[in-house]
Write a structure and sequence with these properties.
It comes from Lutibacter aestuarii. The chain is of the alpha+beta class and about 150 residues long. It has one domain. A hairpin with a 2-residue loop joins β1 and β2. It is about 40% helix and about 25% strand.
């Protein structure tokens, strides 16, 4: 990740998802940022499916080459809104559709309770596949971090 100019992102507020946070851990070029509750979540279309808007504090890991960040420093985490919607799709929408398709197809060949079990069990290989592909997702979902200067 790179250090970016905060003022350039203030003008792009409609295309980004911004969260304020505090750096809670630094290790080997990876920053762990504890995200605060965000007022921008109220206007977001994906807030019902997003895990960040539900609680007061979440943590996110951000890889960075910049060593100027310090522990307990206030920062702003920025993600392109399009990537946020992609994340919601892969975490919530696609698995839901997958369960429904497997349920409907398997209910034609099996008893109802067996079809239900198969539909639920199909999530295990799906989420395992996501886990195996986590490095690909890390490359796709690039998060920027900015120092707050107030």
């Amino acid at each position: 990740m790179e250090k970016l100019d905060l003022n350039s992102y203030k003008n792009q507020g409609q295309n980004t998802i911004n969260h304020e946070g505090i750096i809670s851990k630094i290790s080997n070029g990876v920053l762990t940022v504890s995200l605060k509750g965000n007022i921008n979540c109220e206007a977001c279309n994906a807030k019902a499916a997003c895990g960040v808007s539900e609680s007061n504090s979440k943590e996110i890991e951000i890889e960075t080459n910049n060593s100027s960040f310090q522990l307990n420093e206030q920062v702003e985490v920025i993600l392109a809104k399009q990537l946020g919607l992609k994340a919601v799709f892969w975490a919530y929408v696609f698995p839901f559709v997958l369960v429904l398709v497997v349920l409907f197809v398997s209910s034609n060949f099996l008893k109802e309770w067996q079809a239900g079990l198969i539909a639920l069990f199909v999530l295990a290989p799906y989420y395992f596949t996501l886990y195996v592909l986590k490095n690909l997702f890390k490359k796709t979902f690039k998060v920027s971090i900015l120092k707050n200067n107030y």
